[in-house]
Structures are given as C-alpha cells and as structure tokens.
Design a protein that fits this description.
- The structure is a single chain.
- The chain is of the alpha/beta class.
- It has helices at about 1-25, 30-35, 165-170, 215-220, 320-325, 340-345, 380-395, 415-420, 420-430, 455-465, 475-485; strands at about 40-45, 65-80, 85-90, 100, 105-115, 125, 145-150, 155-160, 175-180, 190-200, 210-215, 225-230, 245, 250-260, 265-270, 275, 285-290, 290-295, 300-305, 310-315, 330-335, 430-440, 440-445, 490.
- The strands form five sheets. Strands 1, 2, 3, 5, 7 and 11 form a six-stranded mixed sheet that branches.
- It is globular.
Length: about 500
C-alpha cells in the first residue's frame, strides 16, 4: 500500500509539473503581449552620436516608431601616432554610433553599406529578441541597403556588432557599438553622460610600428593583441580629447567591450563607482562602492559616480599592461568646486605624466619549437588540408565550396582557381584585392592574407583542388616556397 501511495504522489507531482509547463508555454509571450498592447504613437528618427557623446535622455512617456539609419564604411584612420589602420565601421568611427531608444519602441532599422566597401556586412544587436539579433535580415552587400524591424522588449545597455563571416575579423576591425534601451520610467537624472568602449586590435607590425598596418588573423586567433584601446585609438580620451566635467557633477559612463577576445577590468583611478549596473542590467539594483568592474567581451556596464574634488581621473583596463603598454587609457578632467573642500578631500597635486603609455617593447626567452612533420603523400595532404579549410576557410567559402552570392566567390568548379595554380598560391599567401570574375560572375571584396606556412598552403589548396569538381592538382611546399620567394603584396583582382 505504501508503494501505491508513493506512485500516486509521483504521478501527482508529474501532473502538477505538466500543468505548470502548459501555463508557462501558454503565457510565454506575456511580456511581448503586454508591451504590444500599449498604443504606438508617432514616429521619430533616432539621434545617433559618435563616442564619447551620448544622445539626450528620452523624455516621452509612450511607445513610438523609431527609425534608425546607420551606414557601414571602411575607412583608414589613426590607431596611434604614426600608425594607421583600415577600420570597418558603423557610421565612420570606432566604436559605432550610440543608439538610444525606449522600452517598447518599434525600431525600423536601415543598414546601408557604402559602395566603396570591399566586404558585405550586417549587424547583430544584442537588444533584439529574434534569431541572430538581426544578422541574417541585415546582410548587406556594398552599395546596398537592408531594412528590418524589431520591438525593444528588454531595457538595458547592449552591444551590437557585425556578424558576417569571418565574424572575428569583422569585430576585430572595429565593427561594434552600444544601444541603450531605456526603461519606461527613464533613467535617474545625472549631469554628464559619456560613451566609452574598449576593443583589442591585432596588427602585422608590433605596437607602435609606423605605417598602414594590416590585420593579423594569426595574432587574433592567439588572442595576442598589439593594441587594447578605448574608443578606437591610442589617445582617443587623453590630452585635448579628455572627458570634461565639473566638481560636483554626477557622471554616468556607458561602458562597452567590443572584444573580440579580451575581458575588460574597467577602473577609474582616483574614483570609486557609487553605482555599477552589472553587465548593463539597468533595471536591477546596482552594486555600490565598487572599485573595478568586469566587462565581458560582447558585454557592457553602466557606472555612476559623483566628482567630489578636482583633478584628472584616469580610465584604465586594470589588466594593467594593457593600459600602460597597449593603449587602454583615458582621462576625465574635473575642474571647479570649492577649493577648501577640494584640498580636504585630496591634498595632492595633479600630474598627468605618470600615466603616459610606456610603449610596447616585448621581452621573451628563446624557445625550442618542433614543427609537425610534413605530409608524406597526397592523401595525407588532402586530409590535413580539409582540417585547415573547415577551420579557417569555410566561414566565407562555405563547407560546400559554393561561397556566398555577391560576397565570397565559389571554389567549386572554379575557373579562376583551376586556370592558374601559381595564382591560386599567390592569392592565399599574399591576399587579393579588387574585382574578379569567377564562373562568369563578378566579385569585389577582400581576400585577406593568410599567415599559413608553406606546408599549410600546399595542404589546403590540394584539398580544394581535390573537391567539388576541381581539377585534382596537387600543390607542394616547394611550389609555395617558389611563389613566396617572388614576394609581392595583395594582388589586384582582374580577369579569370
């Protein structure tokens, strides 16, 4: 009998759980239904701002349709003194423009990709409830514009970024920014708001090496950043570019981390955060009296503090070599206030020079590294090449070798590939820029230079030639070495 009671109890628990699941499932859209039940009044075009500026707070008390117009451009800009870099941007700057909407707003998003761009781009907004955050709906070739819409269901501070393959490269080139979804009741009033976003960059040359520096995929995969900076460049928030405020001001920093790899340990030297809205959760109770807060890659936070004395307060990533040796340093200059109170709060003097970057010189111990033995035959070369292709190349050219229309050319039955083996080798080791015609269709994008060994180039090309109706050629390391010896930069496209 007691076993029967146990069985009946278990059945009752199961039925209760099932009933709970049914209620939960039937009520799964309760938040969306409640928000969408509110009337949608009017229409406005969103004000977008370059960092460190922030659009004004939202004062309306109703939902509205908000039109966001954002253009993607690929531009050469300063990374550091004497160092330039080709940034891929949302709105012409890194980070991308700051967006500000209200909880419940219906957002009509227009993403344009400038005709001069070499790559297709899209946008994944972490504020979007929907597959891909808008990425698939916004995939945009150069010279095109995509439109999609979403309802801002959740208040908070959210990252957005490009999610076009290879995703890491697009983010590493600066394609990220912040969107604030204000809660219905708004945010508490402060005197100053600023937009600060960290990113890590990977260049062929070492820190400070002059000239136009190309992106290094090899360093990015190793997470070996040459630059870790606020707002897209060394010095973007120092000297004449320092943030400005007055003693007595309450300051709110919207802090994001585009990554693509590194977590930020955000700290303001000489200040204690009165409030920290961890990971951008602006409707959750804040942490108080915080010294340093973690901002994950692809995440954000909001910090607030009052300026109780004058001076220059230093913004850093407290993974401290990044600040003093890689560029993650900024300044907030506070002036004014009662001099007597200032001196009682802190009696020392301001000295900016202590906080100047110390440079990027690297010291290392010699290492004895053994390379993997070369492939013994064509079959082994194909097997190794397949691994390399699926790991590195398939994001753009697809596992089937068919590429992506208007973006990445096909490798399957490729007349361009099969016509000239040496040209194919050169393309992999030197990259390719400009228009090419593959199987009768035009493509105008960028094939990045791949930091492959001669063995890796031979293996991956041998695999590609062995697949998808290609001519079955074998490429050897000696052939790659011979092409590499001829040197050359990224080839210009043209012909077949």
């Amino acid at each position: 009998m007691k076993y029967t009671k146990h069985i009946l109890a278990a059945v009752a628990v199961g039925l209760t759980a099932t009933a709970t699941q049914v209620v939960a499932q039937s009520d799964g859209q309760s938040k969306a239904k409640a928000i969408l039940a509110e009337p949608l009044k009017g229409e406005e075009v969103a004000i977008l701002t370059h960092a460190p500026n922030v659009p004004p707070p939202i004062t309306r008390k109703h939902r509205t349709k908000v039109i966001v117009n954002l253009e993607v451009t690929e531009v050469v800009k300063k990374m550091a003194d004497g160092v330039d870099y080709t940034f891929w941007t949302f709105g012409g700057s890194v980070p991308g423009k700051f967006m500000r909407v209200r909880e419940g707003d219906f957002v009509e998003f227009h993403l344009a990709n400038h005709p001069s761009s070499k790559m297709p781009h899209n946008i994944d907004l972490h504020a979007v409830t929907g597959p891909g955050g808008g990425a698939a709906a916004s995939f945009t070739a150069p010279g095109h514009e995509s439109v999609f819409s979403f309802t801002a269901l959740n208040p908070g501070l959210f990252v957005y970024h490009c999610a076009t393959a290879p995703v890491g490269m697009h983010i590493a080139n600066g394609m990220y920014g912040l969107i604030l979804v204000e809660p219905k009741e708004g945010l508490p009033k402060v005197d100053k708001e600023f937009y600060v976003m960290q990113g890590d960059f990977y260049t062929k040359g070492k820190y400070g090496e002059a000239g136009l520096q190309p992106f290094s995929m090899e360093k990015a995969i190793r997470e070996d950043a040459d630059y870790v900076v606020f707002n897209g460049a060394v010095g973007s928030l120092t000297g004449d570019n320092a943030l400005q405020a007055t003693v007595g001001d309450t300051v709110r920093l919207f802090v994001g981390n585009g990554g693509p790899n590194l977590v930020s340990s955000f700290h303001v030297i000489g200040e204690i955060f009165d409030k920290v809205y961890t990971e951008g959760g602006i409707t959750s109770p804040p942490n108080k009296n915080v010294q340093t807060t973690l901002v994950p890659a692809g995440g954000a936070t909001v910090v607030e503090f009052a300026l109780d004395t004058e001076g220059t307060f230093i913004l850093v990533d407290h993974s401290i070599f990044r600040a003093f040796n890689k560029g993650a340093i900024g300044m907030l200059k506070a002036t004014g206030g009662d001099k007597g109170i200032n001196l009682k709060v802190y009696s020392g003097k301001t000295n900016d020079s202590v906080y100047q970057p110390e440079g990027g010189a690297i010291q290392s111990m010699p290492e004895n590294i053994k390379a993997r033995p070369a492939a013994k035959n064509k079959e082994e070369r194909i097997a190794r090449g397949k691994t390399t292709y699926m790991t590195i190349c398939s994001a753009c050219h697809q596992p089937t070798g068919l590429g992506i229309p208007f973006a990445f050319p096909p490798l399957a039955k490729s007349d361009y590939l099969n016509a000239d083996k040496n040209r194919a080798i050169s393309t992999v080791i030197n990259g390719l820029v400009g228009e090419v015609v593959v199987n009768g269709k035009k493509f105008n994008s960028v094939m990045p230079k791949l930091e492959f060994s001669d063995e890796d180039v031979a293996n991956v090309l041998t695999y590609v030639y062995s697949e998808w109706g290609n001519n079955g050629s074998e490429v050897t390391p000696d052939e790659v070495k011979a092409v590499r010896a001829k040197g050359g930069k990224a080839a210009a496209g043209g012909g077949h």
